[in-house]
Design brief:
The structure is a single chain. This protein has one domain: P-loop containing nucleotide triphosphate hydrolases (Rossmann fold, 3-Layer(aba) Sandwich). Helix 2 (48-56) links the parallel strand 2 and strand 3 (61-64). The protein contains seven helices and seven strands; from the N terminus they run E-H-E-H-E-H-E-H-E-H-E-H-H-E. A seven-stranded mixed sheet has the order 3-2-4-5-1-6-7, sandwiched between helices. By secondary structure, it is of the alpha/beta class. The protein has helices at 18-29, 48-56, 69-82, 105-113, 133-136, 150-160, 162-166; strands spanning 7-11, 34-37, 61-64, 90-93, 120-125, 141-144, 177-179.
Length: 181
């Protein structure tokens, strides 16, 4: 598998550099079409129908913004259904706990089998423990940045070890520990 069809997760507190890192990774991977779901974005499409139209017309970079949980969830579904081997999509789920906190059957299917449809995904969250464990577990690669909540640090420790996890509370903006290395 490659980055473009994998699930990647980036976890760091507020202003930890998650969005910057996600854009850098997406650019480096040269994914043909990417949909950013960002509930707090200032600009972008505000309807799921507009997202589907942008996908179908081949827009390379699409931003969907909606503070509504149900609309973000629908955008994930639309992107997953629109992705196929001939037209693969990469989906970046920013502020993921707002709409990926429950592992519905549909979300689990997307996370577990999306690669068969050419779908790659990225989960961005300030609180990794707020993302449903069944979804979080699908990340082939995880980036751990500055975290201060003891539950989040404990989760990081399971992946990167206690000594490295302890350094996360004082990590500088943009500094991440990648797992696996």
């Amino acid at each position: 598998m490659t980055f473009a069809s994998d699930v990647t997760a980036i976890y760091a507190g507020r202003n930890g550099g998650k969005t910057y890192l996600s854009r850098k990774l997406v650019k480096a991977a040269k994914v043909p079409q990417v949909v950013f779901i960002d509930p707090v974005a200032r600009d972008g499409l505000s309807s799921v129908q507009a997202v589907l139209a942008a996908i179908e017309t081949g827009e390379r970079q699409i931003v969907f913004r909606s503070a509504e949980r149900a609309e973000c969830y629908k955008a994930v579904m639309v992107a997953a259904l629109a992705s196929n081997r001939a037209r693969p999509l990469y989906l970046v789920c920013d502020e993921a706990p707002l709409y990926l906190d429950r592992a519905t059957d549909a979300l689990k299917k997307i996370m577990y089998q999306g690669r068969h449809r050419g779908l790659g995904m990225m989960i961005l969250a300030q609180r990794p423990t707020a993302v449903a464990a069944a979804l979080r577990s699908q990340a082939a690669q995880t980036y751990w940045g500055r975290l201060t909540d003891h539950n989040d640090v404990a989760l990081a420790a399971q992946a990167i070890g206690p000594a490295r996890a302890r350094t996360l509370s004082t990590a500088q903006t943009g500094h991440f520990i990648r797992h696996p290395e």
